[in-house]
């Protein structure tokens, strides 16, 4: 009420000043000699800053409220803006008035100057009052949105609401992991020799039993022939020993030989038999050595870069491998679980908040780096038995089918453990959550059908567009999901199902 009366007083003053200015203008037009008689100089005082402030305020007020400005106020604003560019007079040059000027004209112009000088402080006061009125009328400090709300502030605002309820949802633990080969085989030579042939291309998929390298086999073929010859010689000696043994046995029956000769014949026969067995074993060893000159793939997998190629002499056993083969079907995925996550999961299971099937029934869903879901699910086949003291994590490993070879060792993937479920969970849409310096909150409708602020504790992000609410909401609450920017606590609203 006080502000309204002040505004009316300012308008009346502006009307008076405006009338005097118009009257002075008409007197100036009727008598050209009036110029340079009386001037109102704006001196280098704080009036410059006052008028400039009024100018800025007036244009801002007009911008925010779309109200029309009184002509005299607009005139003073223009004066302030021009005054900032240089010293300017309202009605002529500064100087003493001529003694020949008539008293009525002098009195009229003096009245104009008097009113203007008194009007400037009042206009400043009026600006302060208008600012105060505008501020208390809109406490948020912003201009009213003419089309955003109802025509009357007391009218209930229609809003959409979301009724939270208890749900059972997948626990959805997602972990950053990496793929690795289920087997890594370093291919080495079993016999020494020169490599004379390579039968694969680097990087290709090779089948189990495929021939990879060929070592020069000629020395081993010779060894086999020597072993075979030694066997033939041993067999001939065995036959001679057998004949000698039988002769001595016949003579012994006739008492025509000594026991010593019989024993020697039997001993020679047994030695000959052992020599035959030895030579047979040497033949098998020679055959095996000859077989080892052909190096085959022990598993089906991807073959890596060749480290020793054709023409090189290789030793048996130690040293660098010839090549490495990685078995990629199935492929393993390895991901760490922090100690905190493990303890939290076990606590939730023990308290009945989470249902978890046996470990062997847990499945793994793989999300690739480009966001696509791998079409095959895996299963957990290993959990580490200790916590890594350096990282504070426990390693979990799963086996995933990779028939088409789409996954390669070393890929970074996201692994989601399927099977565990969270019980009695409340979720709300992301748009309903307000993030403030004091924490997260939502707007709910109370029993009086008015807006109420409800602080909440946020949990995990769920399904890409909802928040899990750990505390602060109950089943049956009415959570407002739209028009949040125009709502304030205590405002009446009309709910509708969102």
Description:
With about 500 residues, the chain is α+β, with helices and mostly antiparallel strands. It has four domains: about 1-135, no CATH class; about 155-170 and about 425-495, conserved putative lor/sdh protein from methanococcus maripaludis s2 fold (Beta Barrel); about 185-315, OB fold (Dihydrolipoamide Acetyltransferase, E2P); about 330-420, Efflux pump adaptor protein, beta barrel domain (Elongation Factor Tu (Ef-tu), domain 3, Beta Barrel), CATH 2.40.30. About 35% of the residues lie in helices and about 25% in strands. The strands form five sheets. The chain has a six-stranded antiparallel barrel. Strands 2, 11, 16, 20 and 21 form a five-stranded antiparallel β-sheet that branches. Strand 20 and strand 21 (about 465-470) form a beta hairpin. Helix 2 packs across helix 4 (about 105-135) and helix 5 runs antiparallel to helix 6 (about 260-290). It comes from Bremerella cremea. It is found in: Cell envelope. One of its GO terms (molecular function) is transmembrane transporter activity. One of its GO terms (cellular component) is plasma membrane.
What Rg do the Cα atoms give?
A: 52 Å
Number of DSSP strand runs: 23
- What gap, in angstroms, lies between the N and C termini? 42 Å
The largest sheet is: 6 strands, antiparallel, barrel
* Overall tally of domains: 4
Topology as H/E string? HHHHEEEEEEHHEEEEHEEEEEEEEEEEEE
Helical residue percent?
25-40%
What quaternary form is this? single chain
- What is the residue-averaged pLDDT? 77
